């Protein structure tokens, strides 16, 4: 496709708007905010299937997408099934309640969207996968015993914090709800603090993992959460996703040797494993009143402090995170913002204001410039510029075409302007061609890449549009770093 270079493999670099950061320093969770549907579509490449990160896959009732906001912050966006929450006010109230929580053991909720039938939650993105991935589907190394203890303790602390803040109910607690942040520390997903629907009937996608009382009466209680925590403890012990009904038989027989994960190769403390084993047994009691409370979990798991001085990323075999505080990324330039929002009017205003300053150095004119033909061509461009300024895009397109077809001068700006004319006239194919020609003339020109991203999006090629937008942003940042401005 000429000079068009699509670099696949980065499905979520399509920025949208984002809320301002909380005042408590770099790296802190941003303030809770309401997002527009346009913003979240932009952030997730129009909810592209390539942006899906929930391990339930597309068959799951509520998909989770990885996205990137306008300020470059990565987020997880949960998209509920249609009309799971018919009342938008009720959904907003629930989301705001969860959004008040802020804790280092949580992947915190930072916003929501409630437009039309759409109901979406926006949370901090955790880049190092789920507990399920590291326990059941690992490739390089299994989780060592000390890390498994840390997971159990941190998640108990997260549940204790939620309970202390009046959020005792956590829906469908399992190994897929435990996420690992950039430091390799385990965190509990905030999504489980919201019901999957207004009535909350879908506790789990797998009834084998639901508390017995839920099967009896369909109710979730704080004791139900403790039961589910017991299933996570079994997962940590065994390295397998064992249905509680089977694990209870193992527990009754006190066969801890059979239960332990063989991939640990005996590298664990029998004493510590017995503590976890006994706690799991208590959590999985059939009668809710016989289970421990959340504070009991924290107290019991606070005792084994194996390798407390070793960072999580070391135990996880992850690269060392950057020691310096994360520098907040620059927000998008006006052109980047306009293109991310597909705002053709704003793009037009920018191109009019920029005029031809980016054409410097792309033409070396000879004495032919003074011929009558050259004067006619420059006059055609001038008439095109006047029509473009006045939004007479049909006339502008005709004048620019005359300028381009004669071919005595080559101007990336004219191609960019004609590209936008095509976009206003609903001709995205032609718009893409012009933007690509602008790139051929001026290979590192961000505007050419920005316009290609808009045209690709208009053509429904959302993944390529996201990649092209990302490349435009990088080129513009490079220009700014070299002192060339935007």
From TrEMBL:
Entry EC number(s): 2.7.11.1
Source organism superkingdom: Eukaryota
Pfam families: PK_Tyr_Ser-Thr (PF07714), TPR_BSK1_C (PF25575)
GO BP, sorted A to Z: brassinosteroid mediated signaling pathway
Region (Disordered), start-end ranges: 1-27
The Protein kinase domain, residue ranges: 50-306
Membrane topology: Lipid-anchor
The keyword Protein biosynthesis is assigned to this record: no
Reaction catalysed by this enzyme: L-threonyl-[protein] + ATP = O-phospho-L-threonyl-[protein] + ADP + H(+); L-seryl-[protein] + ATP = O-phospho-L-seryl-[protein] + ADP + H(+)
Family matches, as InterPro entries: BSK, Kinase-like_dom_sf, Prot_kinase_dom, Ser-Thr/Tyr_kinase_cat_dom, TPR-like_helical_dom_sf, TPR_BSK1_C
Annotated GO MF terms: ATP binding; protein serine/threonine kinase activity
Location of the protein in the cell: Cell membrane
UniProt keyword list: ATP-binding, Brassinosteroid signaling pathway, Cell membrane, Kinase, Lipoprotein, Membrane, Myristate, Nucleotide-binding, Serine/threonine-protein kinase, Transferase
A cellular component term, taken from the record's GO annotations: plasma membrane
Family, as annotated: Belongs to the protein kinase superfamily. Ser/Thr protein kinase family.
Protein's name according to its UniProt entry: non-specific serine/threonine protein kinase
């Amino acid at each position: 496709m000429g000079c068009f270079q699509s670099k696949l493999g980065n499905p979520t670099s399509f920025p949208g708007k984002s809320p301002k950061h909380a005042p408590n320093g770099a790296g802190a969770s941003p303030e809770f905010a309401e997002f527009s549907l346009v913003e979240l579509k932009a952030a997730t490449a129009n909810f592209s299937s390539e942006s899906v990160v929930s391990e339930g896959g597309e068959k799951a009732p509520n998909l989770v997408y990885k996205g990137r906001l306008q300020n470059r912050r990565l987020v997880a966006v949960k998209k509920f099934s249609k009309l799971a929450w018919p009342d938008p006010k009720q959904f907003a109230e629930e989301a705001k309640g969860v959004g008040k929580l802020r804790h280092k053991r949580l992947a915190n909720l930072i916003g929501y969207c409630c437009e039309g039938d759409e109901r979406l939650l926006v949370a901090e993105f955790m880049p190092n996968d789920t507990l399920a991935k590291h326990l059941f589907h690992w490739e390089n190394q299994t989780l060592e015993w000390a890390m498994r203890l840390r997971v159990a303790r941190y998640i108990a602390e997260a549940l204790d914090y939620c309970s202390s803040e009046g959020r005792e109910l956590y829906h469908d607690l399992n190994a897929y709800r435990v996420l690992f942040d950039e430091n390799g520390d385990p965190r509990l997903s905030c999504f489980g603090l919201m019901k999957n629907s207004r009535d909350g009937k879908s506790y789990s996608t797998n009834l084998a993992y639901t508390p017995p009382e839920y099967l009896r009466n369909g109710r979730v209680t704080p004791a139900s959460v403790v039961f589910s925590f017991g299933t996570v403890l079994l997962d940590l012990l065994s390295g397998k996703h064992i249905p509680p009904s089977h694990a209870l038989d193992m527990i009754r027989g006190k066969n801890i040797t059979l239960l332990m994960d063989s991939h640990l190769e005996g590298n664990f403390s029998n004493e510590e494993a017995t503590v976890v084993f006994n706690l799991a047994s208590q959590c999985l009691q059939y009668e809710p009143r016989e289970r421990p409370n959340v504070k009991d979990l924290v107290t019991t798991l606070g005792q084994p402090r194996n390798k407390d001085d070793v960072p999580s990323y070391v135990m996880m075999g992850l690269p060392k995170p950057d020691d310096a505080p994360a520098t907040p990324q620059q927000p998008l330039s006006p052109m980047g913002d306009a293109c991310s929002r597909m705002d053709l009017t704003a793009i037009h205003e920018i191109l009019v204001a920029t005029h031809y300053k980016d054409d410097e150095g792309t033409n070396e004119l000879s004495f032919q410039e003074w011929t009558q033909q050259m004067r006619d061509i420059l006059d055609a461009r001038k008439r095109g510029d006047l029509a473009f300024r006045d939004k007479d895009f049909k006339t502008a397109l005709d004048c620019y075409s005359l300028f381009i077809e004669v071919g005595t001068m080559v101007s990336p700006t004219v191609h960019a302007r004609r590209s936008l004319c095509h976009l206003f006239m609903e001709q995205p194919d032609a718009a893409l061609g012009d933007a690509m020609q602008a790139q051929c003339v001026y290979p590192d020109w961000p505007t050419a890449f920005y316009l290609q991203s808009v045209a690709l999006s208009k053509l429904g090629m959302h993944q390529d549009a996201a990649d092209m937008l990302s490349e435009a942003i990088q080129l513009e940042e490079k220009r700014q770093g070299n002192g060339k401005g935007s």
